[in-house]
Amino acid sequence: MKGGGGGGGVYQGKRRWRFLAIGVLFLVVLSMLVPLVFLLGLYKGYASDHPTPGSDSGPVDKIEEIMEHFTPNHPDEKNEKDAVNHTNEARNVTSSTASNHDRQPPQKDTHVPPRPLPKPPLDQNQIENPQMTEQTKFNKSLADENKKSCELRFGSYCLWLEEHREDMKDSMVKKLKDRLFVARSYYPSIAKLPGQGKLTQEMKQCIQELEHVFSESTTDADLKPQIQKTLEKIEAVIAKAKRFPVECINVARKLGQILEWTEDEANFHLKQSAYLYQLAVQTMPKSLHCLSMKLTVEYFNSSLSDTEPSISEKFTDPSLNHYVIFSNNILASAVVINSTITHTRDTGNSVFHVLTDQQNYFATKLWFFRNVYREAAIQVLNIEQLGLDYHDKAALLSMSLPVEFRVSFSSVDNPSATELKTEYMSVFSNAHYLLPYIFPNLKKVVVLDDDVVVQQDLSALWNLNMGGKVNGALQLCSVRLGQLASYLIDGYSFDKNSCLWMSGVNLIDLARWRELGLTETYQKLGQQVTRVSASPEAAALSANLLTFHDQIYTLDNVWTLSGLGHDSELNVEVIKKAAVLHYNGRMKPWLEVGIQKYKSYWKSFLNQDDQFLSQCNVVQ
Predict the structure, then answer these.
(1) Angle between the 227-242 and 197-216 helix axes, to the nearest 10 degrees?
(2) Which one of 471, 489, 543, 571 is least enclosed by Cβ atoms within 10 Å?
(3) Who wins on pLDDT, 338 or 55?
(4) What is the pTM of this model?
């Protein structure tokens, strides 16, 4: 009995312990299942709300969209892009189907590209009219701004560049360079992808092949006949590279480096070209230098007298029509005189005074001795050897041509920064302010710049009643005096709405000039403006404008048409009707950089049969 009772108690204790162990095990399993179920449920919710990288709206398509901005826009690339897009669609559908069935998160070793910023969607009008997209409008406005900034930096060089712009040459070379840039930008990302050693090797081989081509060829004519196959090969490699998700940051960095290098190179060539242009417009052409040297040698080999008694009296006769020309260019002054005499009825009343420097004095004198212009009298003066009765002549007595200024300004009616306009205006030089002392016996003269061509009789100018004004000049009312107030003297009284005057054709009342003492006024203003202005050019312009303030008699616009030295869009009919053509600007008609369609008006008054012109190849 005792033995049986004891055995039953032990059995019941073991049974209780077994139930307790099962209960603890059940709780352990339950504690593991609950978090697992919770995690699975959270993952399902995340997967349903956020697309996987393989879905249609994932970053793959966005990467491709960004890549398209870095690829060159060539017409023959359209089919290539279409093929890539179809491939992407097929891959995206497959990835989306797999994600719907498996609902598994991506593996750790799967390459997931960084998520780029989303591209704003295009509206229907932009899709139907790609030329009206915001990007296109921005590019157009940027081009306009670049053109304006170019003109502000380099002046008339940009106008000349537009006039002489040529169609793109060596298009195949440029196309190959574009493909090389794209291949280089993709190569680092493709080389990092696992299992793409073959594609990496193909891309490397294409890059090396193109680099070898460029080491031997710089133009389309230097390329080998099989270059088209090379182009097709690298385009196929680029198309394959586009099918893989790449790191946009690396591609953008590489293309950014290429862009920066290209911009630096373009800026260098722009500055170099602008410098050569400035050198061309400021340096006397070789042919004109040759003419001056040959005429000088011929002058000293001949036995010419220094004076011509038969016509010397005309030089001081105030009843005649006197023209004054400041020039160190023999041909330019010859064209001015020839064109004036050609259209003058009574040439016997015309007297021309050509003031030049010591270097060109003898050559100019010989030229006008050998060439007779009907009955006109021509006096050649060496401005460096004039004995003037003026107390401070040393400050002004130096040979200088009318000074030209490039003025960029906003419209008076619409002073917006985007409405900048550029004008080239010319005013008197220091030597012009000695006119009353160079010609003390004359009362009126017409001052002609050496870059004008006369097309009508100018005798009517002497019949104008200027009402006590000193300077009869063409006025430039697109620029007002108030717009240049920052360069003028503080406290000086002037009308801000006054138009600016220009040289070119100027009727000067020397008697009235002497009464007002304008030469002394010019010197005083020049000294005051120089103290407040950082630029000597600005000081000279301000002194000129203020000296003749309220002393300008406005000539009618039919007398002078300006702009032939910088504006290539002048109306032909207006040119034919103008009395005087003024080639103000940098592109003078005797320079190679001159506007071609305006050169004929100037060349028609050259004596093309002269032997010295032929020897120096002046007439071409």
Answers:
(1) 140
(2) 571
(3) 338
(4) 0.64
